[in-house]
Amino acid sequence: MRTFREQLIGLKACPEAVAWVGERTLEQAWTECNRSDWMAWLTRKCELDSREAAADMAERVWHLVKPEAQLACAWVIDCARRGADREEMDAAYGAAAAAAYGAAEAARAARAAYAAYDAAYAAAYGAAYDAAYDAARAARAAYAADAADAAYAAARKAERAAQADIMRSHFTWQDIERAMP
Known about the structure:
Elements: H1 4-10, H2 15-21, H3 26-32, H4 36-45, H5 51-60, H6 70-82, H7 86-106, H8 114-124, H9 129-143, H10 149-170, H11 173-179
Helix pairs in contact: 1-2, 3-11, 4-8, 4-10, 5-6, 5-8, 5-10, 6-7, 7-9, 8-9, 8-10
């Protein structure tokens, strides 16, 4: 039987994730991981529907969404929750991206708002991959701002850990094991 590390290599996981896993089993890695983006990537590779988890993560950082972008972002979350088709996801993404860029032109958010990028990036690895990935990139560009790097890193690390807990609340390591390709 292949180790979890070997399985990740076979799935073409990023070298950083493979190195972090090391000799951990799937159970140990899933329990200890604080990188929601890695966890979301793995659920996508396992073809698990992570739209609910993605929507929960996006709602967790709702307070970072500028008022000008809230309606469009709410539409994207709604699309994820109800499994909207590609055409509607594209339309929702377009509206969210335009609103985010408009808000960024009006005032730049604090760098801690990168947590919204992490949530959207995680959502990108859910069922609505392409549209959510584009939205994640738009959110990252729109919310980039100057702030103390140490505070930014700490806030991002804490948010990723909280989002990892959301992933664990939706999927157990056994769910992943059963779905592993």
